[in-house]
Amino acid sequence: MMKLSEYERWMRQAERTLKSALRDLDGGDYIRGLVDGGELEPFVKRLVDYFDGDVTIILFGSRARGDFNRTSDYDLVVISKKLGGNPLQRTRPLYELNEEFLDVDIIAYTLWEFLKALENLSPSALDAMKDGIVLHDNGFYGMAKKKFEEMKKKGLRRERYWVMRA
């Protein structure tokens, strides 16, 4: 007989697998549901307007992978050349656009900072490239994806954490 903790682990894994499979099968309805008419749509639109469209916004983490639960937050990477100032303070005006008070975690990068974050094996930047869902793109995503693919060819792997194997 299975222990309860083993059963719970099995159920959680089954739920993650099912959510991931449904996301893959739905033809993008999951993503459209988040943004087009979903709870993220007004916030994403305000972010895009704030940067006059010159921004790349990537959803990553459990919401992007499909293994979220009802208490999961929305992890967003926001990349724009219009960002400046202290990296720790630059997200304040972005959080102020969150009029719905969604549970959102924002990491904001300039274009150069994001590319450096990839090189420095930043988990959030690498996870955004591996599992992320692009909610808005000003054209930067293609450049970042190319760099990410080059790094994978050179030995980048996610094990328990991101490593570069020669």
From TrEMBL:
InterPro entries: NT_sf, Polymerase_NTP_transf_dom, Type_VII_TA_antitoxin. CDD domains: NT_KNTase_like. Residues 44-122 form the Polymerase nucleotidyl transferase domain. The keyword Transferase applies. It holds the Pfam family NTP_transf_2. Keywords: Transferase. This is Nucleotidyltransferase (Modular protein). It comes from Thermococcus camini. The lineage of its organism: Archaea, Methanobacteriati, Methanobacteriota, Thermococci, Thermococcales.
